[in-house]
Amino acid sequence: MRCCICGKETEKLQEGMCESCFSKEKSPFSIDRNIKLQICKHCGAFYLNKWEHGTIKDMVTKTVLYYLKPKKNFEIVDRIEDTEKNQMKIEFSCREEKIDVNIKLLVAEKFKVEEDMFSEIIFDYTTCLTCSRVHGGYYEAVIQVRREENILNKEEKEEIVETIEDIGEENVISKIIEKKEGIDFYFISKKTAAKILEFLRLKYGGKIKKSFEVYGKDKSRVVSVLRLPRYKKGMFIEHNNEILFIEEAKNSLNVRTLSGEKKRFLWRNIHQKDFKVLKDLEFENVMITEITPERIQVMSLKKYDTFYFKKEDLPKDINIEIEKEYRAIRRENKLDIWWDYGSRR
Asked: Domain 282-344: what homologous superfamily?
């Protein structure tokens, strides 16, 4: 068989042409020379049937695939290779308010078709719906973060803000109001607020109380109060007559006993009546003054009174020595020695 364009003898023809001529003469793909792309001047989102966020490379790639006709699946590559896959290589250069795009295609069907195309993406700056709502003060939901029987300090407020930012949702908060007792977040979407509220609850624990406020004719806003547990890092609590030091109070309540044993409690298993917060504890230094086979004698270096402890009641890994000092907590003439204090410092 002979090609109708170049006259070359070949075993395969498509529409009377050899593979080389078919690739040159038949161009099944097209793309607009100039493409106007809406760009949000506030957040940088771009619009292709919906508002999206991404890098410049993401934006260019998605725009090319969106406007390329006819639609076909391509593997985006850095280098076109002679394979059996449809491949697309995109190179672009940015100029002021526009991007020049060079596109190289390889279509691997009956004949391989290679094609080079050019397009210019022109920015059409506007304001996306989200930013319009944010700058207009619009909100559909409020999350109020509080701590039970306490207030949130500056570090805790900053951490919660960072946690929400790390979730990765773009422009979801209309405004943030810091109050003495906590912090309020105003969300432009109920759905997003619900997602973040559950994330905060799982991370920090606490209880949620919801209410609704009506606005407009038939619309309502969701107001959620996330009341964090009263327990926080650095506190001492008592559980089953044992003093515990709180090391972390986020995803779970992580504590250490005075002897150094680590324990972990899940929020769903915590009943506050079983965990008493110890306030205004009286700390003092004590010294071991006597060791016998059955017991040790400890003297307070503050009041110089003495206490006796059975050896069998001491932590197993504690190395006791005469004149060795420890930290202790005095409660109603009872002394609880913080055997683990040295390692905590």
From this structure: Nucleic acid-binding proteins (2.40.50.140)
